[in-house]
């Protein structure tokens, strides 16, 4: 697994000079003109003495910045907001940024990602570097923080933010929605969804926000999700969040995508025939692998996508479809071998091999150590790293401890 640094993968996003512990975001969004006026307050801890604080923020107009309550100088160009406090900061500090503009996706090697307009509403899908499209942040996956998000928009629309709804206040033609995300969360996993949605409750804390025209089809297509949740909890341990919200937009989307406690599907993924059910379980599995256990850097992405792919195979077998062994055998014959999935590089970060060969790594490990040890080590892996960050090296060491046998050479061949 030849090393590619985090900077190579994130193309200049993020800083190791500090970590953010909490974001407080106040957003006022006008849907028609796609206009966002906002205030962001960040609580952070410096790794040393900082005379400059780099934040990631797209092309908004920044109206003012304060550090520890004092007006600070700043420059803002090329997606970087560099703040220069009156005095260097050490230890705990706060940054407040006031900004406004027209939010739009940010350009990346993987296309345009982040805040995007729908035909009637908006969505946020930020993996891996789209968070600066709507708030100033330390945009690296390993910098996880808690959040409070207040969003005001037209009362005719439903607002969903990754977090627990704590208040909703209607005033005239606008409503303010306030959400709290208490679990440590990477910036790319924060999401905002705005649309004309009905609510469909599945089971307990599972619900779907869906356009009325798709309500019946969604009820069928996601009807087995409560059973998926039960199965995944058996295999991986308890669901790591308080709620799980699926949003089905009224527009088509290229692919579904996960956020913290949430997944977003396009209208084209709902047909009333469960055609895309493997994607339903895939996105649900990311709540364990990717969201609770978040990669410390993007070269470890197989820990997200390989686990979610293997969850598809396990669910297929449990629900009467092809067995995990049959699916593994099929992909073993079809998946390429020209990519080191343990370090795939920027251009091939989302290559199919990362997904399918990632699933094969887990199936090979299962065959090597047996079901009892395999599922036991998955549960202890999840429990031991809940709401934290992980690397491939962490998982290899964990698997060796749980199995009581050396596995490093085998992982080298599987991930190479």
TrEMBL record:
<dbReference type="Pfam" id="PF01433">
    <property type="entry name" value="Peptidase_M1"/>
</dbReference>
<dbReference type="InterPro" id="IPR034015">
    <property type="entry name" value="M1_LTA4H"/>
</dbReference>
<feature type="binding site">
    <location>
        <position position="286"/>
    </location>
    <ligand>
        <name>Zn(2+)</name>
    </ligand>
</feature>
<keyword id="KW-0862">Zinc</keyword>
<protein>
    <recommendedName>
        <fullName>Aminopeptidase N</fullName>
        <ecNumber>3.4.11.2</ecNumber>
    </recommendedName>
</protein>
<dbReference type="InterPro" id="IPR001930">
    <property type="entry name" value="Peptidase_M1"/>
</dbReference>
<dbReference type="GO" id="GO:0008270">
    <property type="term" value="F:zinc ion binding"/>
</dbReference>
<dbReference type="Pfam" id="PF17900">
    <property type="entry name" value="Peptidase_M1_N"/>
</dbReference>
<dbReference type="GO" id="GO:0006508">
    <property type="term" value="P:proteolysis"/>
</dbReference>
<feature type="binding site">
    <location>
        <position position="282"/>
    </location>
    <ligand>
        <name>Zn(2+)</name>
    </ligand>
</feature>
<keyword id="KW-0963">Cytoplasm</keyword>
<comment type="similarity">
    <text>Belongs to the peptidase M1 family.</text>
</comment>
<feature type="binding site">
    <location>
        <position position="305"/>
    </location>
    <ligand>
        <name>Zn(2+)</name>
    </ligand>
</feature>
<keyword id="KW-0378">Hydrolase</keyword>
<dbReference type="GO" id="GO:0005737">
    <property type="term" value="C:cytoplasm"/>
</dbReference>
<dbReference type="InterPro" id="IPR027268">
    <property type="entry name" value="Peptidase_M4/M1_CTD_sf"/>
</dbReference>
<feature type="domain" description="Peptidase M1 membrane alanine aminopeptidase">
    <location>
        <begin position="227"/>
        <end position="414"/>
    </location>
</feature>
<dbReference type="InterPro" id="IPR045357">
    <property type="entry name" value="Aminopeptidase_N-like_N"/>
</dbReference>
<keyword id="KW-0479">Metal-binding</keyword>
<keyword id="KW-0645">Protease</keyword>
<dbReference type="GO" id="GO:0016285">
    <property type="term" value="F:alanyl aminopeptidase activity"/>
</dbReference>
<feature type="domain" description="Aminopeptidase N-like N-terminal">
    <location>
        <begin position="125"/>
        <end position="189"/>
    </location>
</feature>
<dbReference type="InterPro" id="IPR042097">
    <property type="entry name" value="Aminopeptidase_N-like_N_sf"/>
</dbReference>
<keyword id="KW-0482">Metalloprotease</keyword>
<dbReference type="GO" id="GO:0008237">
    <property type="term" value="F:metallopeptidase activity"/>
</dbReference>
<dbReference type="InterPro" id="IPR014782">
    <property type="entry name" value="Peptidase_M1_dom"/>
</dbReference>
